[in-house]
Design goal:
The structure is a homodimer of 303-residue chains. Chain A has 303 residues and is α/β, with parallel strands linked by helices. In chain A, 37% of the residues lie in helices and 25% in strands. Chain A contains 11 helices and 13 strands. In chain A, the strands form 2 sheets. Chain A has a 9-stranded mixed β-sheet with strand order 5-4-1-8-9-10-11-12-13, with helices on both faces. A 4-stranded mixed β-sheet of chain A has the order 3-2-6-7. In chain A, α3 links the parallel β8 and β9. In chain A, α3 packs parallel to α5, α6 packs across α7 and α9 packs across α11. The two termini of chain A are 34 Å apart. The interface between A and B is large, with 38 and 38 residues.
Amino acid sequence: MSVLIVGSIALDTVKTPVEEHSDLLGGSASYAAAAASFFSPVKLVGVVGDDFPESEFEFWKSRKVDIEGVQRVEGKTFRWSGEYAWDLNTRETRSVALNVFERFKPTLPPSYRKTDFVFLANIAPSLQAHVLDQMERPRFVVADTMDLWIETTRADLDALLRRIDLLILNDSEAREMTKETSLIKAGRRIRGFGPRFVAIKKGEHGALLFGENEFFSCGAYPLEDIHDPTGAGDTFAGGMAGYLAGNVSTVHFTDLRKAMIYGSVLASFCVEAFSLERLRNLSMEEINERYETFKLMSQFELA
Amino acid sequence: MSVLIVGSIALDTVKTPVEEHSDLLGGSASYAAAAASFFSPVKLVGVVGDDFPESEFEFWKSRKVDIEGVQRVEGKTFRWSGEYAWDLNTRETRSVALNVFERFKPTLPPSYRKTDFVFLANIAPSLQAHVLDQMERPRFVVADTMDLWIETTRADLDALLRRIDLLILNDSEAREMTKETSLIKAGRRIRGFGPRFVAIKKGEHGALLFGENEFFSCGAYPLEDIHDPTGAGDTFAGGMAGYLAGNVSTVHFTDLRKAMIYGSVLASFCVEAFSLERLRNLSMEEINERYETFKLMSQFELA
């Protein structure tokens, strides 16, 4: 089955203590689509300006990413520029130019409306809801969010939470959303807001997954060198959604475990290079090999 | 086989946002011995004053903790008082009175010197070394340390590291010891300082284990309510050392995985009540039940 992915498509300028690169493909939907495309066909929804490189459309086509839902409009593509601190754990946004993204209203081509799996990557909750409004009973809806929406459009977000199956958010966002210090309490409380499942990302510390009376915890794949953390969270979420769309018809907790591990594996590759560079030349063999290594590193007892 | 445990024995006063209790049994050796005693006989080394409650000796005896190595001297027992912040993640030391601990010099009774497993809980590295000097070729030596020794007695600590098999320390200490931000790099570098194995404790995020070309990562057992975090790290380490002494003759990486999980399980019980209260009335059935639950929560794929 396919997965519909909606989110931002951007051109990024990223500075780390070691390197700086500009006009890189970025945005939540770009990372998520690349990650998901390893597991299932993707129907991409987003907007780009007339400065957007034609080569990226070719990349998407080569990966079976349907781009009928990508609007090409007059003006400049969304641009983001950020700089990472020495430890790569914190970053500062140097500039944001929404450009064509400012008036983005996701409209689904008729061929997208029956897609079974949906990943609503990080955009305003009202836009995420607008996508759902156009769909015909998707089987499983995954959504990401961020602190900005928790702080500024909480009512929209709360309404959205009642319409989705899995919410993916990071640890600080989970704490902010619930005012709970304990991530265990936070994850369980967020389930009470609507989503049947909640995944909390903890960066270098891995991720937690909450279901009804079910819990799964996994670490992060151990990496000595990280080159660019940008997009790791979107890659994680896109990998999860893509794995589910490609491998599962009715989603159970046990499928979400595997999805989360594949998401972690994809994210671990993502941060090994700038932008989507590592995801562009990654193979399914490499993904499966790392999955197996990661499994061995996490098993309590070896067979 | 038995495990020799040396460290501090204290009477603690602990304040959390909810409760305050005074004159509680505390100290690194007390927690470690209680945890280890579930798996193997313990030979305890420490010092107490004449104010130390007789009932605690009875407790140790009831748990097959040999107290021949606990010196009872004139004066007051080591006292520590601390207060936890609202989130229980940070604490402030309100007062420390070393009392009889100030002149503590661990002397081993002859019956202790051939003990196969040793856990050098958190005391000055020179005292940890002094214990090893009195021993006859122990099979496996585990040591804990803290920021104070990394900052003030680094040469002693470095000398000790070359004589031990497993170093257990927390994430901030690992970063401080190596000046590495990445815990993966830090763990591997510390192996270069001497110990064949390194365990890095990450509190609510679990723990990492490093061997030669081997790595294991486990989360923390998920708890909604923590009552008193005091002693969790000592319980973790004591549980590891006790499990090894009781179950393994030659320690391999796969044994250390299980030891680390048992350590995590013991620590998760420890924080459910003040002081050692939960460890006092804990059963092996409860430990094994939580081990199995924890395993299910961490497995990538269910059988």
